[in-house]
Amino acid sequence: MSLLDDVAERDNWRCWVCDEPVDPDMSVNDSRGPSVDSRTADRKAKVPERLAHRGCNTRKGAVKVVIPWAAHLHVVDPAPLMTVATRLDRKGGRETVARCPTRHDADEAAAWLADRFSRLTPDLPVTTKVEPGGGQFLVILATSRR
Fold first, then answer.
1. Are 22 and 14 in contact (CB under 8 A)?
2. What gap in Å lies between CA 84 and CA 71, rounded to an integer?
């Protein structure tokens, strides 16, 4: 089995950048084809290789990737997810990652975050919580890792 196949199987054939499926039958030269992202801006990364679409990997280059929040979520001041993941992995604890106008919006964002982090940082167990605050609802991400 090749490195690409090993990494792809471990990542369940999902692009770690855009979180969409990667077609194993697509050419590696196609922008939606599979590629191994082995260049991270954080040299201390615990997972040195990740599966990415060729296009996602090329657009990212050798800089820190920006993981987008889902477009359907209604969030205000969303935190940069890779920065949050790095900080929680290093220090543990909890962090407010967004504000939402309604409880429903906050619950939806919290559910999306729990699902997204399960694939983005599979070795970092996180939980989400929604708390009211200042007429809005705060979305909080936490880990017990220290």
1. yes
2. 19
